Amino acid sequence: MSSDLQRELQEAVGDVYAIERELARGGMSRVFVAVERSLGRRVVIKVLAPELVNGVSAARFQREIQVTANLQHPHILPVLAVGISGSLHYYVTPYIEGESLRARLERHGMLPVEDAIEILQDLADALAFAHERGIIHRDVKPGNVLLTGGHPILADFGIAGAVRPAAGSERLTGTGMGIGTPGYMAPEQLAGDSTLDPRADVFALGVLGYEMLSGRAPFDAPDAGGIAVAYFSEPRALSEIRPEVPLEVSNAIATAMARNPADRFESAAEFSDALRPVTSSYRARKRPSRLPRYAIAALALIVLAGGVALARDRLPGRRATEDEGAKVLAVLPFKNLGPAEDAYFAEGVTEELTSRLASIGGLSVISRTSADQYRDSRKPLREIAEELGVNYVLEGSVRWERTPNGRGRVRVTPQLIRVRDDSHLWTDRYDEELSGVFDVQARIAEQVAHALAIALVGSELHHMGTRPTENLAAWDNYLRAKQLLRRGAGDAVDAGRAIDLLTEATKADPRFAAAFAALAFGHLTQYEHYYDRTEARLKRATVAAESAFALDRSLPEAHLALGRLHESRGDFERAAAAYSLAERARPNDTEILSASAYLMMRRGNWSEGVKRFKRTADLNPRSAEGNFRTAEALGLAHDYRAATTYLKRGLAVDADFVPGHSLMALIDLLRTGDRVQAREATRAIILRFGAEKFASTGFEPLIGTLDSADRATLDRVGIGAFGGNAVAYYYWRMAFLDFWDMKAAAAAADSLVWAARTLVAERPNDPGVEAVRSWIHVIKGHADSAARSARRALELAPMTGDAAAWSNAAHRAAAVFVRVGEYETAIDQLERLLVAPSWVSVPALRTDPLWAPLRGHPRFQRLLGRA
User: Fold this and answer.
1) pLDDT at 406
2) 103 exposure class (CB count in 10 Å sphere: 0-12, 13-18, 19+)
3) Whole-angstrom Cα distance, residue 775 to residue 806?
4) What is the distance between the alpha carbons of residues 219 and 186, in angstroms, rounded to a whole number?
C-alpha cells in the first residue's frame, strides 16, 4: 500500500521532487521525505487523508495553504509548495533535522523549566504573528512542534482552515477524524463553535505549556466526551506540582487554559507579554558576554602587547546627579508594535535617538546599555528613574508597516516625562513613509531639547538633521547588523553575520558612512576577541574605518573606529587625537569616554583614567559588566576598597555575573592575603556556577589557592568553555596544571605553542609572546632560556611605553626570575609593581607560596613591611 501511494505521489510531483522514503503516517496524513532536484535540498511532502479533503475544492485548498505560505517567521514552518493531483492533496515544507516536542516529552516526561518557558515564549510569538494576520492554527499540540537546535518550529499552519469545510464543523467525526486534537482543543472548539478566534490557540498553547512543565496533560480522558467533562474541573496548579516554576508563568498558563474564552488572554500576543519578563531574564543570563577581563589578559600575554587592556564597554559606577539644575535623561527602549521579527527596527530607532540626544552638550543621556535593561519591564516609571538616577524619561512605541509599493510606513509615538511629578512635557505621533524615519528622529530630538529649554548650537543642529543613507535596503541591513553587534559582541557567529550584513549595506550605498564605521567595529570584534587575530583582519577594519572617515569627517563613530585602530597598532598619540574629536562631537557618549579613559591608563596616566571611568558611571548606572570594568581599573590601581564598592553595585544588578564574583574573590585576596578564604570563595563560585564558567573568566591567581583535591573538577573543563578557542583553552590548562603536575603542564604548553603558532609568527616583537615563552621554558625546565625571554619581554615593554603591557610583562618576569633562582632581579620587578598599576599586593606577597624562596631576603622583608 505504501509503495502504491509513493508511486502515485512520485507521478504527481514529476521531475520536481524525487521521493526517497516514507517518514511517518497517522490518521490525518502520510509523510514522505523527498529531494528537490533543482536545489538538491531535502523536503517533506505531506499527503492528507482522503476523508479530510473529500468535498474540498481544489481552489479553496490551494488558496488556504497559499495564505499561510506567506507567514515568514523564525518559529513557523514555511510552506514551499502545494499541489493537487486527482485525489491527492499535498503540500511541501523544508526537512527539519531534529524531533517533535511529542517525542521529547515521551522520552523525558517533562522539560527543564527554562527550556520549557523559552519554547512557550517562542511559540506564543509565532502565534501572535499569525493572529495579527488573521490566521488561526486550530491544532496546536506537541506533535505539531518540531525542535531543532533547541528552538521550536510550529508546523501545519492553515491545514485545519483548508480542510474545515469538509468536516462541516469543528467536531470530531465518527471515524475519529476531525479538526483539532482532544485535550488541546478549546472547549468551544470541541463543542463545534464555527466562529473560533485566537483564544482557541491560546488555550491549546496553555495546555502545551502545562504538559512541558509538569510532564502530564491537564485534561486527561480516553475520548472526546471524557475530555469535555474534564474541562469542568480545575487542573492542579503548576506551582504545586513543580515549585521551581515561576509563579507568573504558572498564573499565565492558568489564564490561558480558562474554560470561558472571556477569561483567557485576548491573543497570543498578550500571553507572550505575560511570559516575557521571565524569558528576558533567562536569555540575558545565557547571552554571551564580552570575553572576561582576566581571559583577555591571559590571551594578551600570548599575542597582545596591551596586556591587561580594559574592554571598551560602557562602564557605570555611581548614580547620576540628582541636582535640580541638572538635566539627566534616559531613553527607554521603544516598544515594538509590529511583528516580533521587526524588533531590531524599534531598537535601531531607540539607539539613533539616544545617539542624537547624547550629542547635546547641555543634556546628560544615560547609556543605552543601562536603559536597555528595562525592555519589557513592568516596574513603575518612578522606580526605573530612581535606579537610573534620571529626572526625565523619553519612551514610546514604533510600528513599521510594509506596504505593497515597497516603501513602507513607520509610526513613532514618543512621550517625554518629568519623573518628579509624572507630568508629560511633550508627546506626539509621527506617521511617515519609511524614508522619512530620519526626519522623524531629528524632530523628536529637537522637540526634546525644546521641551527641556536647551538651546541647540550649530554643530548640534547639524547632527540632528543627519540622514545616514537614502537607501532603505542598506538601512535595514545596517539595523540588523547593529542588533547582532549589540547582543552578541563576544560571539564569533554573530560578529560574522553582522559583517556580512554591513558589507551588503555598503555595497547598496557606497556613501553610507555609518555602515562603514560599524563594519570597522565588526572586524575589530573579530580581532579583539581573538576569533581572527591576524594582520589581514586589522587591515579590513582599517579600510572600513578610513572609508567612514573619508565619507563623513564629522561622524563620531568614524573617529572612534580610527582611534581603536591606532591604539591596536600602538600609535597612542593618533588614537588620543581621534578619541578627542569623537568626544567633541558627542560629549556624553560612554563608549567614547571609556575608550579614552583606557588609553590614558595605557599611557601611564592611571589616576586620570580611573577618574574618567567614574565619569562614565554617571551615564551608565545599571550594568554588572560595567561596574566590573570600573572595579578592575581600581583594583589594578590598588584601591581595593573602592573596587569592592563597584563590584557590590554590579552584583546587586546581576547576582549571576560570574566574573564579578571571581574579581571579588581576587580583590579580597589582594587586600587580606587570606588564601583559605580565597579558596573557599573560589570553590563556592565553582559549586554555584560550574567549573566551566569559572575557567572562562581566567582568574589565574585564584587557581593557585586551590589544592590537588580540586584538580579532578577543573580537569573536566573542555574547550567549549572558551568558545572553541584553542589558544585560550591550552593556556588555561597550562596555568592550572602548573600548580600540581609539571609533566601534564608541559604537554599543555606544547599544545599551546602549536595552537598559537600563526599568531606568534605575525607578532615577532610582542612582549606578551615573550612573557609566555619565558613561562613555558620554566615549565619545561629550561632556566636559561626562561630568563632570556623574560628580559626580552621587559625590553619590548618599557615602563615608559605601554603601562598595561609593562605591568603584565613585569609580573610574569618576576614569577619566572624567582623560579629560576634570580632573586635580586625578581625583587627589582616586585618593587616597581607595588608602586605601579598591577595585580601585586603586600598581603598577597606575604602568603603566596610562589614567593617563599624570597622570604629570607632582606630586600623582600623590607617590601613586606610596607603598608
Assistant:
1) 60
2) middle
3) 16
4) 11
Predicted confidence at residue 221, as pLDDT, reads: 66
End-to-end, the C-alpha distance of the chain in Å comes to 90
Distance CA 666, CA 677 (A): 10
Extract the C-alpha cell encoding 167. Answer: 468536516
The SS3 of residue 412 is: strand
Tell me the DSSP string of 733-789: HHHHHTTT-HHHHHHHHHHHHHHTHHHHHH-TT-HHHHHHHHHHHHHTT-HHHHHHH
Question: Which residue in the block uniquely carries the three cell numbers 508546523?
Answer: 155
835 torsion bin: left (phi>0), alpha (psi -120 to 50), beta (else): alpha
In DSSP notation, 151-196 reads: EEEE--TTHHHHHHHHHSSSSPPTTS--SS-TTTS-HHHHTT-S--
List Cβ neighbours of 41 (8 Å cut-off, separation of 6 or more): 35, 94, 95
Cα dihedral 787, 790, 796, 801, rounded to 10, equals -130
Asked if 154 and 145 touch (Cβ cutoff 8 Å), the reply is yes
Strand 328-331 versus strand 392-401 pairing type: parallel
pLDDT of residue 166: 43
Let me know if 500 is a catalytic residue: no
In which residue are the cell numbers 564580552 written?
Answer: 290
pLDDT of residue 493: 67
Distance CA 583, CA 43 (A): 54
d(CA 302, CA 760): 8
Look up residue 94 and give its amino acid. Answer: P
The candidate with the shortest Cα–Cα distance to 577, out of 550, 603, 604, is 603
Q: How far is CA 675 from CA 240, 682, 707, 827, 845, in A?
A: 44, 10, 11, 22, 11
| Beta-carbon contacts of residue 300 (< 8 Å; ≥ 6 apart) | 306, 307, 308, 309, 768, 805, 808
Residues of the chain with pLDDT under 50: 1, 165-178, 287-324, 489
Task: State whether the Cα torsion 754-760-764-765 is positive or negative.
Answer: negative
- All three cell numbers of 278, joined, read 521571565
**Residue 315 and residue 616 in contact, taking contact as beta carbons nearer than 8 Å:** yes
pLDDT score, position 821? 95
411 burial level (CB within 10 Å; 0-12, 13-18, 19+):
middle
User: Rounded to 5 degrees, what angle do the CA atoms 242, 247, 253 make?
Assistant: 85
Give the 3-state secondary structure of residue 23. Answer: strand
Query: Which three three-digit cell numbers place residue 300?
Result: 594578551
Length of the chain, in residues: 867
Catalytic one of 125, 139, 589, 848? 139
Q: How far apart are CA 198 and CA 219, in angstroms?
A: 20
Burial 308-342 (b: 16+ CB within 10 A, else e): bbbbbbbbbbebbeeeeeebbbbbbbbbbbbbbeb
The predicted structure's pLDDT at residue 59: 62
Q: Residue 715 — φ and ψ, nearest 5°?
A: -65, -20
Closest CA to 419 of 350, 317, 352, 327: 327
CA distances to 408, 507, 508, 559 from 550, in Å: 31, 16, 18, 11
Q: How far apart are CA 488 and CA 476, in angstroms?
A: 18
pTM over 0.70? The answer is no
The grid cell for 298 is 591571559
Residue 715: beta bridge partners?
Answer: none
* CA distances in angstroms from 780 to 689, 755, 785, 792, listed in the order given: 33, 17, 10, 19
Q: What is the pLDDT of residue 774?
A: 93
Q: What was the pLDDT predicted at 248?
A: 86
Q: What angle do CA 637, 640, 642 make, to 5 degrees?
A: 95
Contact 616, 314 (CB under 8 A): yes
Phi, psi angle pair for 45, to nearest 5°: -115, 120
Give all strands of the β-sheet with 151-154 in edge-to-edge order.
99-100, 145-148, 151-154
Residue 804: the pLDDT is 85
Sign of CA dihedral 92, 93, 98, 99: negative
